[in-house]
Predict the 3D structure of the following.
Amino acid sequence: MTIATLIVGCVMLIGCTGNDDVPAGFDRQMTDCTIIFYGAGGTNLDADIYENLRQLYRGIADHNNVEAVVFFKNSSNIEDSIKNILDDQGFDFHKATTYRFCVDRSLDDNVQMQFTDENIFGGDSGNINITIVDTMAHYISYAAAMRPARHYVFVLADHGHGYAPQDERPEILQALSRGLMADDGNNMQCCTERGIRTAIERSGVDIDAVYIDACEMNTVETIYELSGVTKYIVSGTYVTPSVGGDYTSLVERLATCPDYGLAMAGYCDDVADWWKRCEETSITPEDYIASDITVVDTQKLLMAAPALKRFIDQLTLDYTDSQLASQIDAVTARAKANDNYGALYDLCAYFDSLMVGVSSVALADAAREARDLMMQCKLNSRGTVTTEQNGLPSFNFLLGANGSWIDIKYNDDGGLKAIEQFYWDGTKTTTNYNTDGTVLDTKDSTWGNTGDETYGKLIFETLTGWSRWLKQNRLLPRPNV
C-alpha cells in the first residue's frame, strides 16, 4: 500500500457535503482565496483574538480578491481583566456564545459590528460544542459555499498543547492548555488531530493551508495527521504569544502571491517581525522568550516517512545490544525538552545527539537521513528575537518509556503539583506533591482509552511504527522535576 493510499481517504470536491444553511438560489462569484477562521476564547484569549480579527478586517478591506468567514465562540469562564478590556472596546460580550458570519469588508476594522444577535449560531444561547467533528465539517463546507474560492486557508485559533494520547479519551479534560480548541463552555472538551482531519475530509473542501495559531502544535504526530488534507501546515513548536499572528499580513500575502507555499513562508517572516514589535513595547517581555512559527510542506513530509521508519527500525535493533542501549539511554536522559510538561521533545536535536553519542554507524546514518529530510520539509521557520538567538526548535515528538508517557502539572506559583503517568494499556498513575516537593500520595486509575485506540491509529504511527520506541525505551526523562 502506498503512502498516498494510506493518507487520502476521499477525493475532496467543493460541495460534496450538503449545507442547508446556504440560502436557496445563492450564487456568488468565485474569488482567489477564502480564509476560513475557526476560533475560541479559551477563558483568556478573547481580547487578543478579537484584535486578530481586526487585523483580518483591515486586510480584507484592502484586498478584494480575498474573503473571510468567521466562526468564533466567546469564553464561558472569561477572566475579569479580559472582560474589562472588551467592555472598554464597546463589545456587547455574551459568555459561551458562538458567532458565525462572512466578513463585511465595508466595516474597516469594526469587528464588533458583526458580533450581533443575528449572527449567533447554535440556538439562542449559542453554547454549542465546537469540538464535535460534524460541527467543524459543517462550518467549513458552509464557508466555502458562502464565499467560493480557488483556494482556501483554514485557521484554528485557541489554546493548544501538542499531541498526547490522553487528549482522545472520552472523559472530561481538565487542563486548559492540553489539547486544541478547548471549549470552556463544554467542560473543556478539546478537538483532536484525528477529529480535525476527519472534519476537513467530511467538509469536501480542498484546503491549501492549515494555520494553527496555538501553542506547541508543530508536533510530528499532529502534522502527519493533517498531511493528507492540506498542502501546507503553519504552526508553532513552542508557546505562541497570546497576541497570535499578524492577520493583516496574512491577507496581504495570500492576495499578492499565487504560490501559497511562498506566501506562508513569507508570512512566517511577517509574524516574527510582529512579535519583535510586540516584545519591544510589552510590559511582560518574558512572554516572548520561547516562541516560533514554522510552515511545513506536507508532500515533503510524506516523503520523509520511510526514512523515519528506517531510523526506528535501526534504533530498536541497536537497543537490543546492551552496550549500545546504555549509550542510547544516556542520550535519552539528556533529550531536549520543548515544553515543561514532560511529553514533548525536540526531534532533530534527538537525532543529532544519537549521531554523536552512540557508537553505531548504521544508527548515525539513519538518524542523519531522517534529520535532513525532516528539515527539508520546512519552507521557513522563524521565532522571537530570544528564540532565534538561542536556536530554533525543529519538531515536537512524544517521548515515553515502557509503553508510558507523563504529564506534569504545576501550581500557580510554579511548584510541582502532580505527575500523571499514562500507560499504553489504559491505566494511569497519579503522584501528587505537597508544596515542599515531597510526595503527598499516589493513586492508580484509568485514563479512558488505550494506546492502541489513540496513538496506534495515528497516520504517523501507521507510516513509521514509532510506538515501538515508546514501548521499548526504558528511560523516561522528566524535565524540571
In short: The two ends are 44 Å apart (CA to CA). Residues 1-17, 172-177 have pLDDT under 50 and may be disordered. The chain has 15 helices and 16 strands.
